[in-house]
Amino acid sequence: MILNILSNFTDLSFLSRFLIVAIVSGFMPLTAMSFFWFMRQKKQQDFEKNLREMGISSSRRIQDTYSFSNYFLPVSFAFLICFLASAFFVFTEDFAANLKDSLLLTGNDYGSPDNSVIINQSLVVLGFAFFGSFIWSAQQIIRRLIAYDLSPSVYYSAGVRIILACLVALVFSFLLGKTSAFQLDTSIAVIAFLTGMFPQRILSSMINFYKDWLNPDELNTDTLSLYKIEGMSLGHKERLEEVGIDNAQNLATASLTKLLIETPYEARQILDWIGQAKLVCYAKNDIDKLRSVGIRSIFDFKKGNKSRVALREISDSIGIVSPLLEVIAEQVESDKGIDNLYKFHVNVDDPNQDIPFEELNSDADEGAVG
Fold first, then answer.
1. Cβ atoms of 364 and 54 closer than 8 Å
2. N or C: which end of the chain has fewer CB atoms below 10 A?
3. At what angle do helices 267-283 and 322-334 cross, to 10 degrees?
4. In angstroms, rounded to a whole number, what is the distance separating the alpha carbons of residues 208 and 159?
């Protein structure tokens, strides 16, 4: 038995395939260790710099979120999935001939006399879907690593995405139907790879295909969409959703220091988004009218002449009811949280301006939640 094992290791083909498995599965722990050992300190320095620019102090630390214990389970989860999937892909030829009828691999054809064609096709689909999803996840992880933004949740997301991509690709292949004769059909492999890269798009296509049968409820969620925030791209939206911010209301009540720690964005950008989100929550469908006269953030109510007469003139010029701006102005004036955020905003825009610490709340979270 030992001789057989040694003979396998002398086989260049076996070593090549084993190396592929090692590289693919080892990518996850290697990137985590690179961030943890070499880049976490830089993120701590950036966080402290942002706090100094705003003139605030906070008890939060980078180590509380980016600790070894927080990485262990998500990295192990992603590593195990990549190890099993890559081994399945590169060693398929060693066990494919012995596969029997399988509900996972044959779907609706389960129980048919000869399912070898659909089984082989499903193996191709799973393999290429895995590598498509792995390449997409690897790109995102590297991008996040370079940006000092490699949080533990990224590895859970990568593992779940790989599973989702493989299942969606497999179901989509059942929808397309099996090929007339198995010849590693190029279109099937390409579709599976693209499904791995963009599983949500393929899933949406399948939902649209059955939309009459599903008859989903039409929910109007556009009013508080994150896309109502100026400067919000798809990448920004997906990144904020990772930390539980799905709409403008969530962003308006988010913790400032938490966002500084758990996202890669600068204090100036986060404060601007929070200020816009608060105004979106107040104005809702009238937000575009306010922006047409230069009122794009809740902080703009603290600038210039915002007397009742001025507010009524603004209301008349843009065609909204006068009490709306007056109510917003009163809320802004009485909200201590907005007042704190505005002071932080002024400090970031003008670092030379000195606002004494005793005039600021010692914890930025109160300013963000107000």
1. yes
2. N
3. 130
4. 26
Q: Are 137 and 159 in contact (CB under 8 A)?
A: no
pLDDT less than 70: residues of the chain: 1-12, 94-99, 101, 103-104, 107-114, 177-186, 209-221, 349-370
Sign of CA dihedral 218, 219, 220, 224: negative
Q: Which value, in Å, is the radius of gyration of the alpha carbons in the chain?
A: 27
Q: Would you give the distance in Å from CA 4 to the centre of its chain?
A: 47
For residue 268, give the nearest of 49, 39, 44 by alpha carbon. Answer: 49
Angle (deg, nearest 10), helices 2-9 and 12-34: 80
> What is the dihedral sign for C-alpha 331, 337, 339, 344?
negative
**Of the candidates 364, 361, 148, 356, which has an alpha carbon nearest to the alpha carbon of residue 271?**
364
32, 75 Cβ separation under 8 angstroms = yes
Tally of CA atoms within 13 A in the half-sphere of 38 that contains its CB:
9
The residue among 303, 295, 282 whose CA lies nearest residue 346 is: 303
> 261: which DSSP letter?
H
Per residue in 158-202, pLDDT (tens digit) is 999 999 999 988 888 877 765 444 444 557 888 888 888 888 787
Of 260, 248, 300, 240, give the one whose Cα is nearest residue 56.
Answer: 260
Angle ∠(296,302,308) on CA atoms, nearest 5:
95
Which one-letter DSSP state was computed for residue 39? I
Structure tokens at 209: 């295909």
Report residue 251 as tokens.
Answer: 């962003």
Instruction: Tell which residue, 201, 200, 202, has the closest CA to residue 175.
Output: 202
Contacts made by residues 349-357, CB under 8 angstroms, sequence distance 24+: 349/268, 351/53, 354/55, 355/55, 357/55, 357/56, 357/57
Structure tokens at 128: 């290429």
334: its two tokens: 């009485």
Q: Tell me the C-alpha distance between 318 and 290, whole Å.
A: 7
pLDDT tens, residue by residue, 257-306? 889 888 889 889 999 999 999 999 988 888 888 888 888 899 988 887 77
